[in-house]
Specification:
This protein is of the alpha/beta class and 328 residues long. It has helices at 6-9, 14-19, 60-70, 97-109, 140-157, 171-181, 202-208, 228-240, 254-263, 274-285, 291-305, 315-324; strands at residues 30-37, 43-45, 53-56, 74-80, 114-119, 132-134, 137-139, 161-164, 190-195, 244-248, 268-272, 309-312. The chain has a single domain, classed as Aldolase class I (TIM Barrel, Alpha-Beta Barrel), CATH 3.20.20.70. The protein contains 12 helices and 12 strands. The longest helix is centred in the middle third of the chain and has 18 residues, at 140-157. The radius of gyration is 20 Å and the shape is globular.
Length: 328
C-alpha cells in the first residue's frame, strides 16, 4: 500500500499545493531595469541581452508601457550617454539621458510608474570605473559629491527613489544629506550594500559600455569568498540611512540574502543580474532547459531565501506568471 505522509497529502492536488505554498509573491515586488541612451527615436535590441531593449529618452515610455501592461509597476533606470569623460559629467547633467527620461516618464505616467535610478559614474566615465581616478586608484572621497549631485539631479527630474551602486564608502550618508538639503527628504535610498565583484555583470557592461578600461572593480566591490563582510557593509549602509538594501548578484548569493533577511528588518532587494539572465536565455535557446520553468523556479528561490523585492530582466514574464498563478 502507498504510504500517505503529511507532505504527500499536502501536494496531492494543484489546489492544495497552491493553498499551502510557503512563499507568496506579488508583481508589486518586481523591478524592471531599463537602459536609456542618448539620441532620438531609438528602440534597439541589446546585443548582449536577448529580448532586452535600449531606448532613447523619447521612446522609453514604450518600454514602461509594455511592462506596466504585464503588471510591473517599478523601474530601475540606467543611462548610456553619447560622450563619456574622466569625471562622468553626463551622470549629473541637468539634461542627461536619465534626467530627460525621468521628465518624460513622469509626464506620461505620473505615479503609475515608480521610477528608481541607478546612481553611479561607471556608465559615464571614459575609464569605466565607478569613481574618479587618481593615479591608478579610484578615489573614494572626491567621488562622493558627484554621486550626491547625481542623486539630486535625478530627484529634481522626478525620480521616486535613488539606488547608488558604486560601492564608494559613505555614499549613503552623502546622498542622504544632499537630498535632505535640497528638499528631497521623502526620497528613499536603496543601497547596493552587498555587491560582489562578479563575472555575472558581463552582459550589462557590454550593454552599457562600462567595462573598466584598466584594472577591475575588486578594490570597491566585494570578494565572493566573504559573507560576514556583507553583513558589515549592510549594517554600515543602514547606519548611514539606507531605506532598502540590495544584494547582488542573486542566485550566487542566496546565502547572503538569507542572512540579510535574518539580521535586518528593512526591505531587501535581490538583483538578478545580466549574466544570470543571459545564462537562462542561452541555455534555453540551445534547447537545454525550459526557459519559463527555470525563470519561475529561480525567481521563487530568491524570494524564498528572504528577498522582499526582485530586480529582474524577466520582470514582465514573471508578472504574467504570477497573474496566471503558476507562481506566487
Ligand atoms: C553599475 C552597475 C552595474 C550593474 C548594475 N549597476 C555594473 C557593474 O557594477 O559593473 C550590473 C547589473 C547587471 O549585470 O545586470 N555600477
Amino acid at each position: 500500500m502507498q504510504m500517505e505522509t503529511r507532505t504527500r497529502r499536502l501536494r496531492s492536488t494543484d489546489a492544495v499545493r497552491r493553498l499551502t505554498r510557503e512563499t507568496r509573491v506579488s508583481a508589486d515586488a518586481l523591478v524592471y531595469p531599463l537602459f536609456v541612451r542618448e539620441g532620438h527615436g531609438i528602440i534597439e535590441p541589446l546585443p548582449s541581452m536577448d529580448n532586452q531593449t535600449r531606448y532613447s529618452a523619447d521612446t522609453v515610455a514604450q518600454g514602461v508601457e509594455s511592462a506596466l501592461s504585464a503588471g510591473v509597476r517599478s523601474f530601475l533606470l540606467f543611462g548610456l550617454p553619447e560622450k563619456k569623460d574622466a569625471v562622468g559629467s553626463g551622470a549629473y547633467a541637468v539634461d542627461g539621458v536619465v534626467q530627460q527620461a525621468l521628465r518624460n516618464l513622469k509626464q506620461a505616467f505620473a505615479d503609475d510608474a515608480y521610477l528608481i535610478t541607478d546612481v553611479c559614474l561607471c556608465e559615464y566615465t571614459d575609464h569605466g570605473h565607478c569613481g574618479l581616478i587618481k593615479g591608478q586608484q579610484v578615489d573614494n572621497d572626491s567621488t562622493l559629491p558627484l554621486l550626491a549631485a547625481t542623486a539630486v539631479s535625478h530627484a529634481e527630474a522626478g525620480a521616486d527613489m535613488v539606488a547608488p551602486s558604486g560601492m564608494m564608502d559613505k555614499t549613503v550618508s552623502s546622498l542622504r544629506s544632499a537630498l535632505d538639503d535640497n528638499g528631497f527628504l521623502h526620497i528613499p535610498i536603496m543601497s547596493y550594500a552587498a555587491k560582489y565583484a562578479s563575472a555575472f555583470y558581463g552582459p550589462f557592461r557590454d550593454a552599457a559600455g562600462s567595462a573598466p578600461q584598466f584594472g577591475d572593480r575588486k578594490a570597491y566591490q566585494m570578494d565572493y569568498h566573504n559573507s560576514r563582510e556583507a553583513i558589515r557593509r549592510i549594517q554600515a549602509d543602514i547606519d548611514e540611512g539606507a531605506d532598502l538594501i540590495i544584494v547582488k548578484p542573486a542566485l550566487p548569493c542566496l546565502d547572503i540574502i538569507n542572512q540579510a533577511a535574518d539580521w535586518f528588518n528593512l526591505p531587501i532587494a535581490a538583483y538578478s543580474v545580466s549574466g544570470e539572465y543571459a545564462m537562462v536565455k542561452a541555455a534555453a535557446s540551445a534547447g537545454l532547459i525550459d526557459e519559463y520553468k527555470v525563470m519561475c523556479e529561480s525567481a521563487i528561490a530568491v524570494w524564498r531565501a528572504g528577498a522582499n523585492i526582485l530586480i529582474s530582466y524577466f520582470a514582465s514574464p514573471l508578472a504574467v506568471a504570477i497573474s496566471k498563478g503558476d507562481i506566487g
